[in-house]
Amino acid sequence: MNPKPLILDEPTRGIDIGTKSEIYKLIDTLAGKGMAILFISSEMPEVLGVCDRVLTVAGGRITNELDGEELTEENIMHAIAL
Question: Which of 39, 60, 62, 79 has the fewest CB within 10 Å, making it most exposed?
Fold first, then answer.
C-alpha cells in the first residue's frame, strides 16, 4: 500500500522499546518523504518526540493547534483542559 495520509492510533502500545524505536524511525522516514501522518497517542513523551504539530479535539472539532516552540507538555495539557 502507498497511502497519502497514514493514520496511526496508539501504534506503540504494548510493544518493547526496541520495536518502538523502529516504528519511530519508520514514521520519520515516511514523513520525510512527504506523507501526512495522523499520530494518535495517549503518551505525552511519545507525542512530543514524534509530532511536529499537535491538534486537540473535543466534541468532534479541533479546539487548538500547537507547533514549534508552543509544543510543550504544559501547553498541550492546557489546551486539553479548555
Answer: 60
Q: Is 14 exposed, middle or buried (0-12, 13-18, 19+ CB in 10 A)?
A: exposed
> What is the rounded distance in angstroms from the CA atom of residue 21 to the CA atom of residue 11?
12
pLDDT digits (tens, 9 = 90+) for 6-47: 999 999 999 999 999 999 999 999 999 999 999 999 999 999
First to last CA, the chain: 38
Cell of 64: 487548538
Q: Are 66 and 79 in contact (CB under 8 A)?
A: yes
Partners of 13 in the β-ladder? none
Give the C-alpha separation, 54 to 18, whole Å: 25
